[in-house]
Amino acid sequence: MEKIRKRRFGIIASLVLAALILLGAFWASVTIDKNKTHQDTLARVERKGQITWGVKADTKLFGLMDTKTAQPAGFEIDLAKAMTAQIAKQTNTKLSAAFVPVSSASRIQLLKNTNIDGLISTMTITPERAKIVDFTNVYFNAGQSLLVKKDSGIQSVKDMNDPKYTVLVVVGTTAAQETKKYAPKAKIIALQDYASAMQALKSGQGQALSTDNAILYGLATENPDYHLVGGVFTKAPYGMAFDHNQKPMTKQANRALKTLQENGTYNRLVEKWFHNVPGLDWHDLEVNK
Amino acid sequence: MSLLNQYFSVFVQGFGHTLLASIIALIGSLVLGTLFAIMQVSSSKTGRIIGNIYVQVFRNIPLLIITLFLYLAVAKVIKMTGFVAGTVGLTLYTSAFIAESVRAGILSIEAGQMEGARANGLTFNQAMRVIILPQAFKVAIPSLGNQFINLVKNSSILAFVGGLDLMYQGNLVAASSFDTFTTYIIIGVFYLVITMPLSYYVQHLETKLKKKA
Amino acid sequence: MSEFFNAFTSANMGYLLGGLGITVGVSAISVVLSLLFGSIVGIIQFEKIPFFSSFVGTLNNIVRNLPLLLIIFFTYFALPQLGIHLPIFWATVAAMTFFESAMLAEIVRGGLEAVDRGQFEGARANGLSNMQTMWHIVLPQAYKKMIPPIISQLISLVKDTSLASGIVLAEMTYRGQIVYAQNTNYIIPVLVVLTVVYFLLNYGLSLIAKWFDKKLA
């Protein structure tokens, strides 16, 4: 008797569980499609009273975690704070800035998933990315370059076009794609963050580290045996990014950026972060009022 | 499914690297693990101390730290790629667990057998090789099988050091296709292709062993 | 060499060890939750309910045979595609609980099977129901035996939280990476500190497991 009851229970429970799994899978496939269109970022930001920015925590000059305060610091962090205050003024709402460290590999996913509202994370504006996120106007003009050991004899990216060379890049950066075009024969290894990539360069995992010059300058300051070569071989203008089809938010951000550039705030931040970087003239980065 | 078609060769390449790293690390850690297990049960005091320290150290620190250490620090002196660093890291880490399994296997063999063999004029090493280890391995097989499954799963650590494995390729695909959900499901299936048959085989061995006992 | 010691500023070390709190927090919460879910799954498998037990067992096997790193990435990066947004700390806890429950289910099942069958029959003969037997007689004994393997799972969890550095959870390993991002010469001292801290924590735990092992034997 009990055996039969147990058997009946087993069958029913199995069916229920199977149904739940199928239902879950169905729900998942439907939801994924539905969630591709998101709610209005500006409305969400105003409701929360906060803009959550995805920022770098491992990139000197732009966004680097300060171990004393456990808060990131850098040009982009200061710019994000100024942007937040300016957008608050424009929209007449109280807004505070919050920061979430992101990696290059994951940042767009986090933005699309609305873990964060906006990105200001050394992100280059590219046509492919513009298809899936909304970019603001350019806030920083970077360009891809090459960091090599001073005695390596490598002069430019063309010298790297040889199977014996390995170029180190970071997952999710434009350099990861662009380098292939300029040195198709070289091996390319993508690492998780700039610190690992720099250390990998120093331990001989590759002969060059390629990414935006502004980031490479930051790495070169602490590693005097290494220098930038070959100038800039692709332009890499940085833009802030919001989720796709977020016109109101992008418009507010562009207006805020323009105001900050006109009222001198932008130039003050440029001076604060870039005035003593060897090999870089910070006046070149200033915008004309 | 279009994602699978589009990136199929990438996934397969990753799968190959994962498989290769797992097999190399399995062989390496079997050899190393057995060596340290014998040291742990040997009569030499220094042998026991070295064996114990090795096992305790590699069991108790994260595989990621071992791998980063190899890739970022040791590689300054000894050149190695991320794939090599990851595979060596896996070997060192897994060998500590295998040492434990083999040691338990050895200890499960009656002490009398060792004494008997020694009394018959075999040296410690001979007795170990001919009498004890074959029996110890038989006992340890299910637990070794589980270690191999863990090893395959842990090989995903290669993604942290550019090791070209499944996880690494998966992250690259996710970063360029932006369909994280599908990418990771596909990657998961690839892992299961290796680990599920192994896991059922180990279960089968376990029940067989139990029946005998 | 001086570069080596430059890394040991109080700010750097304070920041690094602050990550220890998160590492321990994630592991402790996950192990408690996994024990709960793992017990349910383990008991279902042990009870050998027709169809249901083997079905649940298969699902459990699938989870057990996936890399934890994949589950962590999936939870944080892919679940939001379904509208499930977890803060990074809880995403890690959820991923680890999901994975670890499957591991603990096996331990619970093994622990239950190790309890003498005669005890069931004795308890049943004394008029206890199935549930009562499980709850009052079998589980307490099984759990006692399971303490050492559960502690070794906790050790695995502590080590595995380092994987969450991949999703930028500010646990100890990630914080280490941040410290050496300031100056790549700090990489060796940081890794040494991380090694020592992880080792002390886990070795301590393994001694506790050993102590229980002896006491229970």
From TrEMBL, chain A:
Chain ranges of the Solute-binding protein family 3/N-terminal domain: 50-277
InterPro entries from the UniProt entry: Bact_solute-bind_prot3 (IPR051455), Iontro_rcpt_C (IPR001320), Solute-binding_3/MltF_N (IPR001638)
The keyword Transport is annotated on this UniProt entry: yes
Entry keyword set: Signal, Transport
Ionotropic glutamate receptor C-terminal domain residues: 50-276
Top-level taxon of origin: Bacteria
Pfam families membership: SBP_bac_3 (PF00497)
Name of the protein: Periplasmic component/domain (HisJ)
Organism: Fructobacillus cardui
UniProtKB/TrEMBL annotation, chain B:
Keyword Transit peptide: no
Keyword Transport: yes
Compartment annotation: Cell membrane
PROSITE patterns on file: ABC_TM1 (PS50928)
Keywords of the record: Cell membrane, Membrane, Transmembrane, Transmembrane helix, Transport
Transmembrane segments: 20-41, 53-74, 80-99, 157-175, 181-202
One Pfam entry name: BPD_transp_1
Main location: membrane
Protein family according to the UniProt entry: Belongs to the binding-protein-dependent transport system permease family.
Protein name: Permease component (HisM)
Species of provenance: Fructobacillus cardui
TrEMBL record, chain C:
Subcellular location, record wording: Cell membrane
Transmembrane segments: 20-44, 65-82, 88-108, 186-205
Keywords, comma-separated and alphabetical: Cell membrane, Membrane, Transmembrane, Transmembrane helix, Transport
Main location: membrane
Name of the protein this chain belongs to: Permease component (HisM)
Bilayer topology term: Multi-pass membrane protein
Top-rank taxon, per record: Bacteria
